[in-house]
Amino acid sequence: MAQAASKTCEICVSAPGSQYCLECEQYFCENCKTFHIRQKLSKNHQFQSSSDVIPEGKSRCKEHNEDVSFVCNTCNVAVCSSCVTGSHTGHAFSKLKDSISQLKEKNKKDLQRKVHETTQNMKKMEESLKAFDVKVEVVVKAITEEGTKIKAMVDKCIAQMIASVKDQSKTEKDKLTKIIADRKMDLKAGSNLDKKIYELDKTRNDGKLLQSLQKLTEDIAKLTIEPIPEFPDIQYTAKPVTDNDIKQLFGIFIISGVRTQHIGNREKELPKTKSDYEQDTKPKEEGKYLYRCNRCG
């Protein structure tokens, strides 16, 4: 690339313009640069070496072919001095450099404000996410504790049912045991009478034997054979239980959807599909209504 021609200081118009002011778009020598940055209005101006920058030519008015140095605030367009007294007469104006400086400052502040606001929003969202995680843990703990409580209630109910079965079955067994004991007593009495018959068979036939046999006949008549009692029975009928029946024992949880804020203060909730848990635990209404009104629907 061809080297740019050396420039002369545009202030003293004698020394080489080795420095270029980006704000003023002018070449300065070292002495004029030092004086320039000592001025209150230009102390923050930025300089570059004239060998490192090749500034673009100033914009020129298409109508008058003059350098534009003003901004018509009414029309929001850059104009030259001839436009100020010509087609833009009576309009509000500002210097081009001032407008550029103000616009740069405005853009810088607006961007900083939005970056700061976004940073704060991100911080709040991260804090909210942590808080949401804590709430999730609380809900999980509550569900777990409720499940433990329900399990304990089920275990207690099982123990009570088993104890009731054993108590009632023991009562019936005791009844049957007593009946069996009574039957054994009758059987023993019969066995004793049988022995007496055996002994009487060895006795001489006389009047005394007759009396003994008559007494034996009466005793045998008193022996009764009780019918077999109806034996106790036990059975268990299981009740059909579904997953939904178990879920009905628990409480329910509700998660509100994420809402995003849009331009114009419009809110939009992100689509949220109902969980299988919510769908299963919702009471069914199938078959609730037998008829439909043709007018009301």
Report on the structure:
This protein is mostly helical and 297 residues long. It has a domain at 129-228. It has helices at 30-38, 81-85, 96-200, 207-222, 243-247, 276-281; strands at residues 19-21, 26-28, 47-49, 70-72, 77-79, 93-95, 259-262, 266-269. The strands form 3 sheets. The protein has a 3-stranded antiparallel beta sheet. It has a 3-stranded antiparallel beta sheet with strand order 5-4-6. A hairpin with a 4-residue loop joins strand 1 and strand 2 (26-28). Helix 3 runs antiparallel to helix 4 (207-222). It starts with 18 loop residues before the first strand and ends in a 16-residue tail after the last helix.
Please report the distance between the alpha carbons of the first and last residues. Answer: 84 Å
* Overall pLDDT confidence: 83
Taking all Cα atoms into account, the compactness measure Rg is 56 Å
Number of helices: 6
Shape: rod-shaped
Strand content: 5-15%
- Element order: H for helix, E for strand: EEHEEEHEHHHEEH
Give the neighbour order of strands across the main sheet.
2-1-3
Number of β-strand runs: 8
Helix amount: 40-55%
Give unreliable regions as ranges: 283-292
Determine the structural class based on helices, strands and strand pairing. mainly alpha
User: Biggest sheet: strands, sense, closure?
Assistant: 3 strands, antiparallel
